[in-house]
Every structure is written in C-alpha cells, then in structure tokens.
TrEMBL record:
UniProt cross-references to InterPro entries, sorted A to Z: Helicase_ATP-bd, Helicase_C-like, P-loop_NTPase, SNF2-like_sf, SNF2/RAD54-like_C, SNF2_N
UniProt organism field: Streptomyces lycii
The protein's name in its UniProt record: DEAD/DEAH box helicase
Domain of life of the source: Bacteria
Domain Helicase C-terminal positions: 559-729
Entry keywords, A to Z: ATP-binding, Helicase, Hydrolase, Nucleotide-binding
Residue ranges, annotated region (Disordered): 1-22
Domain Helicase ATP-binding residues, every copy: 316-477
Keyword Repeat: no
Pfam family, any one: SNF2-rel_dom
Amino acid sequence: MNGDEAAAVTAGRAETEGAKAAVAPGRATRDLLRRAGELRSAAAALVADRDSAVRDVREALRPLVDELVGRGLDGIPVARLKDVTEGRLRLGALEQAGYRSVRHVRDATAYDLRRVPGVGAHTAAQALAAAGQIARAVEESVAVRIDIGRRDDPATTALVVALARLVAAGPDIGPAAALARRLDGELSGLLPRARPAAGRLRLLVTRPSRRAGAREAAARIGAVLDEAAAGSVRLRLAQASADLLRAPGSRDEAWLDFEVRSADYYGLLAEIAGQAPDREAAEGFLPSGIAERVRDQPLDDTHRRVSLRGYQSFGARFALVQRRVILGDEMGLGKTVQAIAAMAHLAAGDGTHFLVVCPASVLVNWVRETESRSALRVFPVHGTDRADHAAEWAGRGGVAVTTFDGLRTLDAHVPAAPAPAMLVVDEAHFVKNPEARRTRAVAAWTERAERVLFLTGTPMENRVEEFRSLVRLLRPDLLPQVGPGDAAAGSRAFRRAVAPAYLRRNQDDVLTELPELVRVDEWEDFSASDAEAYREAVESGNFMAMRRAGFARPEGSAKLERLLELVEEARQNGLKAVVFSYFRDVLATVRTALSEAGSPAVLGPVSGDVAAASRQRLVDDFTAAAGHAVLLGQIQAGGVGLNLQAASVVILCEPQLKPTTENQAVARAHRMGQVRGVQVHRLLNTGGVDERLLTLLDRKNRLFDAYARRSDLAESAPEAVDVSEQSLARRIVEEEQARLAAG
C-alpha cells in the first residue's frame, strides 16, 4: 500500500468516528466539515482528471471524423443541396463554376461563392447553410474505425494513445468517476449550508431558519461520510486517480495494447463519441412495451469487472426482466459476457447458486471468462475432480460450469443441490431434439431454475419447428400462440409471438468497428485425377466421398494447390490463417502438404476428440505465435465456442450442409476484438457437388433470415419447409448420377 492509499484508509476510519457528532457544534463538527471538504476535493480532482482524458480523446477524434465527413460529402453532388431547400436554391451558376460536390460548397466561404457570376449574398448564404445541414447529417452517420494498417498516421495514433490512458485505468474508472461526480455535486451544496454549525457562537448569531438548515446539512454530511467509510470510497477514489494519472506508454505500446484489447478501446470510443447503434436495432426490434420494461431494469455492477456496450447491458437486463429467454445474438457480440452480467446482478441480491451448461469444447473458456470478468466463484464440474467441485459449489455457492453430459450426473454428485438463481445453456441449439437425453436433462433443470437463459446464434438450422422446441422448454405458455400454422403463415407473425422470449441483434446493426469481411469463392476446375475420384464416388453413391473428392488425390488436387497458394500469400504478409474442413482426412492431407511446402507453425487439428483444455491450448499457442501461423480445425469443433481473432485469413475446404456452420466458423475470426480485415476463401470445384450444394442451401439461408435473424418486425417470408441433411444428400447423389450417366 502506498502513502496516498494509507492516508485514504486512515481518513476513512476517522469518518465514521466523527460522523456521529455531526449535529453538535464545535470541534467535532469542524473536523467533520474538514474531512468532507477533503473528500469533495478528491472527488472533484477525479472528475476533472477523467474529463480531461475524455476531452483528449474527443480532440484526437475530431480530425478523423472530419476526414470521414469530407469523404462522404465528396460523394454527394452539389445538386442535392436543392433537396434541403425544397428546390428553392438555384445552383446552375455554382455547377458551371466547377462546384461539383457538397464538400466543395461546404469548404468555401460566403465571399468565395459571391465571386461566382449570378450568385448573390442570399444564394451564397442558403448554399452554405444547406451544405452545413448535410454535413451534420453525414457526421451523425459516420463511425471512426481504427485501422491497424495506419500506425504511421499521426491522427490515428493520437486517438489510440488518448484512448490508451482510459483503457489502462480499467473498467472501474467509469463507475468511480460517476460516484465522484455525485459526491462532488452533493457536498458542494451541503458544505456552505453546514458551515454555521462549525461553532457555537456562529450558530447562535445565525437566523433560526438557517440554523435549522445548518444542522440538517451537517447531519446529512455525517451520513454521506458514514456511507463513504462503509464503501471504502476514499480508497476507491485514490486508486482511480492513481490509475488515471498513470503516464501513457509509447506510441508502439499503445498500438500493441490496442491489438490485444481492441474491444475495450472501441467500447470507450462508442461511449465518448456517441457512436451508439440505432436503438431499435440494439434492442432487437422488440415490441415497445417489452423494451420499455427492460430499459427500466437496473443492472448492478458490484460483482462485475467489465464494462458493457449498450446493447450488451440491454441483453442482460432482458434476461432479468423476462426471466426465461433465448439470447440469439449473432456470433461475436458477447453473449457470454451478457450472461455473466446477469448472474453478477443476481449475486448482488439474493442469488447464490448459478449453473452454466455448455459443450466440452468451451468449458475452459467459460471458466476463464467468468473468473476474469466477474468476482463470482467458479467451479468446473468436469473431469476427475467434478464430484468435489460439485459438492463445493452446492455448499458455498457460485457458478458451476458443466457439460451436457455432466449435467445428467450432477444430481448424483449433489443430490440436494439448490435450485439455481439462473441456469445458462450455451449453444442451446444442441437441445432442439426433445427426445435426446441431454434435452431431457436440460428440461429437468429448467423446471428447477428461477431464471433460464439460452444462448445460441443459430436457434434454427433446418426448420422452424426446431426453434419452437427451444421455446417449448422455456415458455410453454407461448406455444398456443406459436403453432405450426403461425410459422407457415409468415415470419413476422412468428417473431411477434416469440418476442417475449427471444432477443437477437446482428453484427451489422450494433458493431460499427468491425473491419472489412471479404468473401471469395475460389472456383477450381477438376483436374484429371480430381474428376476420376469424383466419378468413382458418384458411381458408388457415396455422398461424403463426393464432398471430399477434391482432396482425395493430393498429387493432382486443384483445391490443394490453391490452398497452398493462399497460405503462402498469408505467410508473405505475416498473417495468421485458419483452415476448416468437415473431414479429418482432408485436414491430414492439408497438414502433410503444408509440411512438405515448408510452412512453419502448423497447429492442430482442433477436432472432436481433442480435450477441451487441449483445444484451448492450441488456440492460445496460435494466438501467441509471432507472425504467420496456420491452425487446422474440424469445422464442427473449431467453429463452436473458440475465439480466433488472431486469424485474418479463413479457408473453407468445402461448402457445408448447414449455412450456419460456415457462418459460425467465420464469426470465430470476424468478431468483436478483431482489428484486421478478414478474408474468407471457400474452395469450390465446378461441375460437381459443390455447385449443387450452394444452390440448394441458398433456400436454407433465406429461411433463417426470415424467421430468426431479427427478433420482430421484418417482412414476411416463405413458409417453413424442412430441408434435412439426409434428404439433401440423397437428392444431390441422384442428380449427379443422372448427370454423369447422361454425359
């Protein structure tokens, strides 16, 4: 403990001792007012320091915003100024004089415009006013994105350095500054009123009305000091000031920190710059009545160690207000932290026990995230110590994290386990089959829990009935309103009916900082050996062999040749790449080819038989690798629950049977925290199963867009028709056999 912190602790102890004498004039009251003045000075200093840091960010932001606005105005022809003035403005003379865009007019002076023949003072004033109005509208629509490729740009670097000071101060600086502002405001009003109570003589000569007010103010100051002492406020303010005044590091250190913690930087930037997403989008287009109740719900941050985006705070409060819900946010928007925030809020009240159920592949990640983002105790109920951890959780309370299989045996470990204040089910689409054992286990715990939160970015993969099955577990009371006929009638009615239990936001709606996502379909003609392998697979009716025929004969594989070119290009640019395939033998072929080509740092594969802890170690090693590296992953394993922001190149070896499988895999890299543009290369062979798959799966994508991508209020869509994997495979095999036979 340093000198300032020790002094703060000593002062905090003294506050309680003297507060009881607040209403008695004399030395005790003078001492009380002195301590209150010191507390107010500490609060005012913290407010001033944070305001200064925020002002530095705004000043650094200004030239970047001006640049974006200028670009936007460059693309607006000067003729659009007429729209602002309802056609009253004559612009012919300006256009003839070379004023082509609104930016040209905005950057001119009234004198410049009046020099144009035919433009008088009134027209010049109108043109400048109209250009200014358009500029303000453009400014409201632009969002600054910090480009990692602009390290040498002084303006961008200045913004990163200014943000680094606030980010380094930690997530507690915002709440501490808010507390300081409240204390400063309250004590500023109380201290002048209480001063007459500092001495008996002064109190006697004070008018009776002011005398009573002085005693009342002194009593209130005593209460404020008591509250401050109980909450260690002096120590908290001292620590916040020390964190905020810590000198920022070098420009290189700030950029490195931005790469590691870009989500924190963008969260602050959105708060300071007012770059919040559209409110209706951030609230999932919920009906106004539900949205209003959610906005009114407070969110206690006592046990939380992370700041939330506005839409994340709304999601946590939605779970608290509606009690049993599906949070269906698109991948990369922080569903985990929203669940943690909801549990932390309940823990600040009377909630003691919480239960998280997730796939084994993400159990380690859940433990890490909960420990780092909250003060809640975490018990991994998995592996050899699961019985001990389960018993400790039952006795002490906290967050138990287990797998779907582990949930079935949890009662055996703790027969008298208390009902969870909240049950969180991650990747909840795994329990869409009501006959599966894991679904029955989740259903049993769902009945016991006070609140239930299902997390899934893919609540419906093949048909709307699967989505209804999740609603059935949570809110069976909604099912009469959401029958099969309602689903077939159209997506809008369906979403309106499930709105009390379903919230979804999409990346495009709420994240302005995501870097560019470039998708490229890499079409390759079959080589002679590829064509031979494909024909053999078709003749045998082996659908899976047809899908991986492009890699069946590596020595002549057109797909493999292109994959090696893409990896080599990533290596030359110092970029990390992740390669996904459904098939282990394809990944083995890729690993061999990369090794023979001399590619360094090839990790994986991440597959279903790799333990959860080992998967996380592979991802950690991939992230920590200096420069280029390649991570291989089975798409059904690596595409679930892992954060791969280190990758900026994603290679898909073949199209998948479910569009959501591909989307999940890509979202592991293109998510909050990614600072580089992401390139997605899907390897496809012409004239075969890949083409057929893309055509048939397009319908699945449209179905998901219509029914689940927005919570409510979208256009109507086609009726829900099952497109199962088995029927899809059978249809493709039959069509390809007929095509090749005819050929």
